Every structure is written in C-alpha cells, then in structure tokens.
Amino acid sequence: MNVPSLLPGNPSELRLRISYTDDLADTPQTDTLERWDVAVLHGDRTVGSVAFYRAHLDRGMNAVRVMEEKSEELDEIAQALLDPITGSFTEDASSSLPYVGSSLLVMDKVTLDEPWRGHGPGAILATEAIHRLMAGCRAIASSPRVTDLSSDRLRNQTEFDRVTTKIARGWELIGFRRYQGNVYLLSPASLELEEQRGAMRGRLAVWRRIQGSHTSP
Predict the structure, then answer these.
(1) Whether the Cβ atoms of residue 108 and residue 53 lie closer than 8 Å to each other
(2) Which of 106, 126, 131 has its CA nearest to residue 50?
(3) Is 128 in contact with 173 (CB distance < 8 Å)?
(4) Which one of 2.170.120.30, 3.40.630.30, 3.40.30.10, 1.20.272.10 gives the CATH number of domain 11-215?
(5) Could you read off the pLDDT of 120-162 as tens digits, one per residue?
(6) pLDDT tens digit string along 22-70?
C-alpha cells in the first residue's frame, strides 16, 4: 500500500452530522423530495459538507417534475433514470437494479475545505453517509462535478477537466458506474459498495497510525 499523504488534522477527530429539516409544508413536492444535509466535522469545526436528496417515487408528485424544478443537476439525473410519464424508474434502469427499495437517493454536492482536498477523505466520508441514508432506496445516483469554482486554476479548461475526471474516479472507487452522460449509478445491494467501504475504513486506519506517529512526542 502506498503511504498516504498526511491529512491537515487528526482523522480520528472526523465526524459526520446528518440532519433533515422538515418545514412542515404539506405539499406534494415536499412529500416527494427530501433534502438531507451532512456536515463534515473535525473536532468542533466544520470542514466540509455533503448534500443528498431522497426522491420518493411512490408518493406525492411525479418525481421528474419535482426534480426538474429543483435544479439542473437533479433534472439531469431524473431525465436519465426516470420515466417522465410515470415518475418511476425506466425499464432500462430497472433492469440493472435489484429491487431493494422504491426511492432514489441522489448524492448532490460534496465539498471539503481546501486543506482536506486531494488526500482522499471525500470518498471515505461520502461512503459512510451513503450507508446511513440508503435504506429504502433502490438506487443511488450522482453527477460528478466541481462544486467550488473559486480557484483561479479551475478557469483553465484542461485543469477543470482533470479535476472533474479525478472526482469521477473517486466515485468509481465507491462503486458508482457511468450510466448515461455524466450520470453515475450505484445499487445499494452492490457487493462492491460494501467491499470498498471496508477498504476505505482500512485506509482511514492507516492514516490514523501515520498521523499519530507524526504527532507523537
């Protein structure tokens, strides 16, 4: 195993805080689409976040319409996976998904503070969050992209494409596979997902040992 780069802080202090805010709006839209926010904490400081959406395909409105109204990214995923008439998974998507639930979980945005990027914890943290939110879902989808465009280097198209490709490879490590266009798909029943979770936890343990050896007196 290659020795991983040192993280900017002790990885044993990383935590996830998962929350769902219910505004008690009694509408078909809110019955169909839920937003779940995951804060990445290091000690008492927030160093990143992951935004998820859970689309309930068996209640409320047609999920395609709701996702289309919410954002371009969710619309892209809905157009790739869902039937616009029924709001359910298309026949093609269904053929590749074991029936383990009826909902669609979308990993929408993953952000980390600059010092934590490029080391690999994003995929590890996202995997842990997915495991806690995927119950009742038949599929997990994502559209890998750069969410922080503040860096001057990302104004260069070559660098932008390189970073985008690197992000996609990180999701492939989890078990996501390109389905259509820039939409990636993962089944909660995937054995690879569980295997990769174990491998990533092992990598995190190595980080902790290395980090500990550098901070010991």
Answers:
(1) yes
(2) 126
(3) no
(4) 3.40.630.30
(5) 788 889 999 999 999 999 999 999 876 655 555 556 667 667 7
(6) 988 889 999 999 999 999 999 999 999 999 999 999 999 999 999 999 9
